[in-house]
Design the sequence.
C-alpha cells in the first residue's frame, strides 16, 4: 500500500522548503536543507555530504549529534560503506536497517547506533552536488518520506545552482562578464525552476486536496523567485541602475507576504544599511517567518515590523493584533523552529510575548 503524505503542518513545511530556494548563502542553504528534512520526517540524525574528488566527501554538514559525540568519533565520514554506495549510484536509497546492507562497514568507536536510513542525491543542474542522509526515524522511513525528501533535494539543488551563480557574479562582474552571467541565469536557473514547479505540481496529484492546495501555493512562491531572478538579470544588463536600499528590499518582501491576506503590514525601519551576505539573508528570513506566522495563524488585521539599532544591537520586533496564544503551551512546529534556528545562527536572542485575545510580539535582539 502506497503511503500518503500527512498534511499536518504541511503549510509550514512548504514555507520552510521555500526558504531553501530563497537563501542566497550556500552554507545557509545546506544547513536549512538538513534541518528541514530532519523536522519533516522525524529523523533523529541528518547530514548533507558534499562530494569531492575520487568519490569521497569534501564537506559534511550534520545535525543531531552534540559536540561530545563528534569529539568521541574523532573524524567525520569520508564516503565509505553505504554512504559511498549512494555516491557511486547517484540514486535514492531507503533501508529499514543500515547495518544489513551488503556495503555496510559498521560504525567507528564512539558513533551512536543508527538503524533506518534514507539517502537522497542533491543535484545542482546535471551534476550530483552531494547527498542528503537521514537516519533513525522511529518506525522507519516510508514512501511518503522519500517523496517529500526528494522534493526538498530538488528545491535545494536549484537554490545551490543559484547561489553558485551569485558567487560567480560577485567574482566576475568587475571584469565585464555581467551580460554573460545574466544569460547563464536565464538559460539555466530559470529553466530549472520552471521544471521544479512542474514537478511539484505532479507531486500535488499524490496527496489530498488541502495539502495539494498548500503545495501549489509553494509553486506560486517559486514563480516569485523566478520574477526576482528576472529582476537580477535586468540589473546585470543595466549596471547603472541604482541599487535597492535595505528599506526598499524589506518593504518589497512585506508587500509580497501581505498580498494574499486581508491585512495591513507596515514597516518602521531606522537602520539605513545592513551588513551583506549571510547576516542580511538570515535577517530577512527572521522577518519573513514572523510575519508569515502572524498572517497565517493569528487572524491579524494589522502587523507592524520595527527594525532599530540600540547599543550595537539590532532589535527586530513583529507585532500583530491577532488572537494571541500561550507561548508556553504551543507546540513548536517548523515555523517557530526555523525562526529560533535563524536567530540562534545570528548569535541573537528570541522572545515571544502573547496572551489569548491580546495579539503577539515576536522580538529578536541580534548583535549588530
Sequence:
Amino acid at each position: 500500500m502506497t503511503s500518503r503524505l500527512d498534511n499536518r503542518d504541511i503549510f509550514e513545511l512548504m514555507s520552510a522548503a521555500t526558504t531553501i530556494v530563497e537563501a542566497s548563502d550556500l552554507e545557509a542553504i545546506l544547513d536549512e536543507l538538513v534541518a528541514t528534512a530532519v523536522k519533516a520526517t522525524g529523523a533523529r540524525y541528518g547530514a548533507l555530504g558534499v562530494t569531492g574528488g575520487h568519490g569521497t566527501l569534501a564537506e559534511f554538514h550534520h545535525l543531531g549529534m552534540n559536540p561530545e559525540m563528534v569529539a568521541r568519533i574523532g573524524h567525520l565520514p569520508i564516503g565509505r560503506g553505504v554512504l559511498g554506495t549512494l555516491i557511486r549510484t547517484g540514486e535514492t536509497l531507503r533501508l529499514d536497517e543500515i547495518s544489513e546492507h551488503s556495503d555496510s562497514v559498521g560504525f567507528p568507536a564512539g558513533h551512536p547506533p543508527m538503524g533506518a536510513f534514507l539517502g537522497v542525491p542533491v543535484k545542482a543542474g546535471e551534476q550530483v552536488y552531494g547527498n542528503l542522509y537521514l537516519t533513525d526515524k522511529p518506525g522507519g522511513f516510508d514512501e511518503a518520506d522519500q517523496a517529500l525528501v526528494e522534493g526538498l533535494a530538488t528545491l535545494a539543488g536549484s537554490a545551490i545552482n543559484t547561489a553558485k551563480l551569485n558567487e560567480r557574479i560577485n567574482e566576475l562582474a568587475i571584469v565585464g562578464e555581467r551580460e554573460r552571467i545574466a544569460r547563464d541565469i536565464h538559460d539555466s536557473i530559470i529553466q530549472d525552476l520552471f521544471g521544479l514547479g512542474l514537478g511539484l505540481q505532479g507531486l500535488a496529484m499524490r496527496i489530498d486536496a488541502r495539502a495539494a492546495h498548500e503545495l501549489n501555493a509553494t509553486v506560486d512562491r517559486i514563480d516569485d523567485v523566478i520574477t526576482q531572478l528576472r529582476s537580477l538579470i535586468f540589473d546585470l544588463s543595466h549596471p547603472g541602475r541604482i541599487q535597492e536600499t535595505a528599506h526598499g528590499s524589506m518593504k518589497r518582501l512585506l508587500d509580497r507576504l501581505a498580498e494574499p491576506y486581508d491585512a495591513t503590514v507596515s514597516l518602521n525601519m531606522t537602520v539605513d544599511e545592513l551588513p551583506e551576505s549571510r547576516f542580511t539573508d538570515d535577517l530577512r528570513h527572521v522577518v519573513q517567518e514572523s510575519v508569515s506566522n502572524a498572517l497565517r495563524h493569528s487572524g491579524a488585521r494589522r502587523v507592524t515590523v520595527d527594525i532599530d539599532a540600540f547599543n550595537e544591537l539590532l532589535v527586530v520586533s513583529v507585532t500583530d493584533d491577532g488572537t494571541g496564544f500561550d507561548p508556553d503551551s504551543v507546540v513548536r512546529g517548523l515555523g517557530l523552529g526555523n525562526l529560533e534556528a535563524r536567530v540562534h545562527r545570528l548569535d541573537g536572542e528570541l522572545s515571544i510575548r502573547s496572551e489569548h485575545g491580546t495579539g503577539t510580539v515576536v522580538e529578536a535582539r541580534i548583535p549588530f
Summary: The mean pLDDT is 76. The longest helix spans residues 143-172. The two ends are 53 Å apart (CA to CA). The first strand starts at residue 45 and ends at 51.
